[in-house]
Design a protein that fits this description.
alpha+beta; 3 domains; four-stranded mixed sheet; 25 helices; 45% helix
């Protein structure tokens, strides 16, 4: 009888990342789900059914472990998709009808559908006699045919349209069951459960591709490796500096072991330092400020607060219509969507709209933060999070809303005819002492994911709100909690990041000029991206060149050169724009010379607080220097912030902000 318990030593190969296959970036954030799990159960059960009922078994299933089987199927199918399509949904072949992630042909789709139904029927026949216990399926329970499978079976659409209608999860579930037939060897599937790479390649060659040519066999050498850990983990485990991505700066360190605190403790620490308020509270507090101002003869600023909810269409809560960066937020019982407008007479072009839901949204936000912390136990140091939050000098009045937008006139159309183009703010701190004696922090719950909102809390709360005298020194003044940069350094920092995009786009143009110098490039980075991606995604296996319309010109572009240019572009673009720390730092050029130092240090604190073990000297400063070398007449980042200054920044983070559960490299 097979077992579903996990043995002490498992043999599950790790799913690849872009560190293993750069082309996997084509997949984005798409992942498998419940249907590939169902397909794993169907094939596992079918193997047990046959091997345990025949007098001549062809595979030893005495140690056939389901958990290992499912884990290695995730690895196997990911490699199969990479091998077949470079993780491109619309990949197609020029000589056959093969199409999509797994390159189904027209004939194979019908076979795969019938095979899936057959596996389901045999699975259901064993509902009372099954010799193992599938997760969440009770004895006697049967499984219905999935709706997507019935739709696919009865569809009269084109081959491409049928496959495009499937999700990634459905596609891979169908493909995996399709591998298991009378012609396949159960012994190979049993070995797959052990992560056997030879059996895995046999399944691919004999049950999926069936007749691989020499080129396919050569390509196969780069796929289905025995991978106890992927290249990302290997690099992480041996790195002295962090491995950056758009959301994390992962770093291996021993200082994160044996934590005493839990996510619940962190939530308690946050709750002790944040005085939580709702959107309704913010409206009332603004109204009180307006009343106080109207009674104050010393001020000429007239503040008006207007409830504009009645003037907005019924689909007010569909926030994504305003901007793709916004996420829709659900109403709780007795809650409703609301919007109010704040107008200050001293700024005639600023109309501030605040979108929120009534009710206890603060508790909802805290619960989301707790889930985020629970989901990443190896990525946060709970002890240090509590320690740095406890170091804040005073509580911060915090208002949780859905989102806020500054319009240029009172006749703001909601939702607008076109999506909002102006930058939306994830939150802000405002030293408005007429509302609260220590100012206010506003966090937008509909903006970004929960991790980014946690970062906003550290940035606006620990980076701004608790530093009453400004964290860095105010330009030209001898005031500030920590004066690090002098006036010349502030000037140069603002100049460097004020022209950051222009400089980086020029560097990109030079980077790929060996291929694109025959094209008159007006916007180098965008044109290179569009052209390279177009060629990369339209490449056919049997072609070396393809014709594309590039900026109005018909060009025959070499696929390999274009793909190489695109990869150069992608790596460079991620480093200087998309990945941390530059994704967080590069926008300091939008601030003024009076505020850039404080904003810079607040963003460093946010980045360090939400990424365990990293330091400024070892992890952030080197990336900043690489992204901003001397260019033209512009000083380099190393000229503005030298090693002495970099160490001073780390000392502030360690000693003042109590980020001391990490190893600093200070002389």
């Amino acid at each position: 009888m097979a077992t579903i318990s996990i043995p002490a030593a498992t043999h599950i190969n790790v799913v690849a990342t872009t560190f293993d296959h750069s082309a996997k970036s084509n997949l984005g954030e798409i992942r498998t789900g419940s249907y590939l799990s169902q397909a794993s159960m169907l094939v596992y059960d079918d193997i047990l059914r046959f091997q345990n009922s025949t007098d001549a078994p062809t595979a030893d299933v005495s140690n056939f472990n389901y958990n290992e089987f499912e884990g290695n199927i995730l690895w196997f199918m990911d490699e199969l998709v990479g091998m077949e399509s470079d993780w491109i949904k619309t990949a197609s072949a020029s000589s056959t009808t093969a199409y999509g992630y797994v390159q189904f042909t027209e004939d194979s789709v019908e076979t795969a559908v019938n095979r899936y139904i057959g596996h389901l029927e045999r699975f259901n026949e064993r509902s009372l006699t099954r010799d193992w216990v599938p997760y969440s399926i009770k004895l006697g329970e049967t499984l219905p045919i999935p709706e997507w499978l019935t739709t696919l079976k009865n569809s009269t659409k084109t081959h491409e349209e049928k496959l495009d209608a499937l999700t990634y999860d459905e596609m891979l579930a169908l493909a995996f069951v399709h591998l298991h037939s009378k012609k396949s060897k159960d012994s190979n599937f049993v070995l797959l459960a052990e992560g056997d790479i030879y059996a895995s390649k046999e399944i691919y060659k004999n049950n999926h591709h069936t007749s691989p040519d020499a080129a396919t066999l050569t390509r196969l050498e780069d796929f289905f490796p025995w991978r106890k850990q992927n290249k990302y983990v290997e690099k992480l485990a041996h790195a002295t500096s962090s491995v950056p991505s758009n959301a994390w700066m992962h770093k291996h360190c021993a200082d994160n072991l044996n934590q005493g605190k839990t996510p619940d403790d962190v939530i308690a620490c946050i709750s002790a330092k944040l005085i939580m308020h709702s959107g309704d509270d913010l409206k009332i507090d603004y109204e009180n400020e307006a009343n106080n101002n109207s009674n104050n003869t010393a001020t000429t600023n007239i503040i008006t607060i207007t409830d504009v909810t009645p003037s907005i269409a019924a689909n007010l809560g569909v926030y994504a219509k305003y901007n793709s960066l916004l996420t829709n937020q659900l109403l709780e019982a007795n809650s409703q969507y609301k919007v109010f407008l704040r107008k200050d007479s001293d700024d005639i072009n600023d109309f501030s709209f605040y979108f929120y839901r009534s009710g206890d949204i603060a508790t909802e936000w805290l619960q989301n933060i707790k889930v985020e912390l629970n989901n990443h136990p190896d990525d946060y140091n709970y002890d240090e999070l509590c320690q740095t939050i406890n170091s804040w000098s005073h509580p911060v009045h915090t208002y949780i809303i859905d989102w806020q937008y500054n319009a240029s006139n009172a006749n703001y159309i909601i939702p607008p005819a076109t999506p909002l183009s102006n930058p939306l703010r994830a939150g802000f701190y405002w030293p408005n002492y007429d509302v609260q004696s220590t100012g206010i922090m506003v966090v937008s719950k509909a903006m970004g994911d929960t991790r980014s909102q946690l970062g906003t809390m550290f940035h606006e709360g620990g980076g701004h709100a608790i530093h009453v005298n400004r964290w860095g020194g105010e330009y030209g003044a001898a005031s500030g909690d920590n004066i690090l940069l002098d006036n010349a350094q502030n000037d140069n920092l603002l100049a460097l990041y004020g022209d950051y995009k222009t400089i980086q786009d020029q560097r990109i143009a030079v980077l790929v000029s060996d291929y694109y110098n025959k094209v008159a490039i007006r916007d180098a980075s965008q044109l290179v991206y569009n052209a390279s991606l177009l060629v990369w995604q339209s490449a056919k296996n049997a072609q070396n060149t393809t014709q594309v319309n590039l900026d109005g010109q018909q060009l025959n572009l070499d696929i390999r050169s274009a793909a190489n240019a695109y990869q150069k572009y992608l790596v460079f673009h991620n480093r200087v724009y998309g990945d941390l720390p530059m994704a967080n730092i590069r926008n300091i050029g939008l601030y003024t010379v009076d505020t850039i130092e404080e904003e810079f240090i607040a963003r460093i604190y946010q980045t360090m607080a939400t990424n365990r073990c990293i330091t400024f000297v070892d992890d952030i400063w080197p990336v900043m220097k690489a992204a901003s070398p001397a260019y033209g007449n512009m000083p380099s980042l190393a000229d503005i912030i030298d090693l002495d200054m970099a160490e001073k920044i780390d000392i502030v983070m360690r000693d003042e902000m109590k980020l001391d559960h990490r190893s600093y490299n200070i002389r």
